Amino acid sequence: MRIKIAAGNWKMNQSYQEGIHLAQEIIEKANPQKDELVILGCPYIHLKDIINLSQEKTNIKVAAQNCHQEKSGAYTGEISVSMLSSIGVEYVILGHSERRQYFRETNEILSAKVKGALSSNIRPIFCCGESLEIRTEGWHIRYVKNQLVKALFDLSPEDFKRIIIAYEPIWAIGTGLTASPQQAQEMHFEIRKTIEEHFGTSIANNTSILYGGSVKPNNAKELFSQPDVDGGLVGGASLTSESFLPIISALSTPKV
Length: 256
Ligand code: PGA
Known about the structure:
Blueprint: E1 4-9, H1 16-29, E2 36-41, H2 44-53, E3 60-64, H3 81-86, E4 91-94, H4 97-102, H5 107-119, E5 123-128, H6 132-137, H7 140-152, H8 157-160, E6 164-167, H9 181-199, H10 201-206, E7 209-212, H11 220-224, E8 231-234, H12 241-249
Parallel strand pairs: 1-2, 1-8, 2-3, 3-4, 4-5, 5-6, 6-7, 7-8
Helix pairs in contact: 1-2, 5-7, 7-9
Bound molecules: 2-phosphoglycolic acid (PGA).
2-phosphoglycolic acid (PGA) binds next to strand 8.
C-alpha cells in the first residue's frame, strides 16, 4: 500500500520552545488516517522530545534534516546516523536543494548518506528537482532522473523500498511559485516510470513520491489530487499549525 505523507521541513527555524509548542499542537490536532503519515522535519534540538511527545500517535514521526555519511570520527559539528538512531529517529531528509547548493552535496555524497541512513534503519526522504534554467531549457525530466539514478539506483530492491522521494523544483522552493498540478503530475509520473523500469512495478507502485515547493493550504488539495502525488514536503507552511493542519487534512483528497 502506498502511504500518503505530509512532511514538514522546519529548516533553521524555531527556538526550542517554539518548536515544542508547534509539535504539541500538531500532535494534538492532526488526525492522519490509516494510510497517512505526518513527519516533522525539525532541527536536532527538537528530535528527542518530539519523539517522546508523539509516542501515542503511531502515524506522526520526526525526521532529521541531515546526517553525515561517515559512521563516526573527527567531523566537528556533524551528526552520524547511529547518533540519530540512538534517540529513535526513523527518517532523515537527504539531498535537499539547499544542502546541494550551500553545502555542495553531490549525488556521490548523497549516495553514501543514503546507504549510511539505511544501514542504521533510518528511512531517507530523498529530494530531487531542477533549477529554473534547466526547466526553461527543457531537460528537467532527464536531470531529475539522473539525480535518482546516481544516488539511489545501485541500492538493492529491499533497500530501495524504504526510500521516500520528494520532487522539489528549486524555482518553487520558498518563492511562492508552485508547480502546477499538471507539472507536478508529469514529473511524478516520470519518476515512477523510471523506478518501475529499474525496480519493477510493485516497488514503483508502493513508493511514496511527495511534491515540495510552496505547498500551501490553498493549493494542497489540487496538488494531492494528482494520481502520482502522494503528499508534500512543506517548508514555510509547516511552521504554524494553522497552515500545516489543513495540508495534513488535504492528504485525504480523492484522486482525479
Ligand atoms: P517551501 O519549502 O514550502 O517553503 O517552498 C519546501 C522545501 O524546501 O522543502
